[in-house]
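Slide 14.
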Amino acid sequence: MQLHGHLAHPHRNNRISYTGRSTYLVTAVTRDRCKAFADIEFGRLCEDLLAKHAGRTRFDIPAYCLMPDHIHLVATGRELDSDLRRLVTDWKQATGFAWSRLSCGRLWQPGYWDRLARFDEPISEMERYVSENPVRANLVTNSADYPLTGAIVRPFGQH
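Slide 15: predicted structure.
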């Protein structure tokens, strides 16, 4: 639902625990659709912070894309205590703090959108949706040419 250029504040689904080894598609939008990630250097810092917080909360990120004014990511819990809410909250807080230190005000709209992958759903479809976002937005003709997209996946056995 679009309201004056803002996404309505999403509510969490009470039937989902948001912990464990599930996979989610997450979208978070910048405040007032600020094009913060058009600044590639800032985007790189946000990628580093995503890797840091994914490691802390024990998530793999098989695909992410920092579009100019929002992020899409696929997050897969590695452990039973992997907590999606903690990952997104901590990452948004860290990137928001970094943005405010640049004297740019608030970075994020409240909340984020998520969708839990069904048990029979190929994760590759979510990954493709995320990686092809810059092509659908006409920012590049080949998704490999977009600078702020990738994956953060730890080798098997690493924590």
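Speaker note: The helical segments are 40-56, 84-101, 123-131, 133-136.
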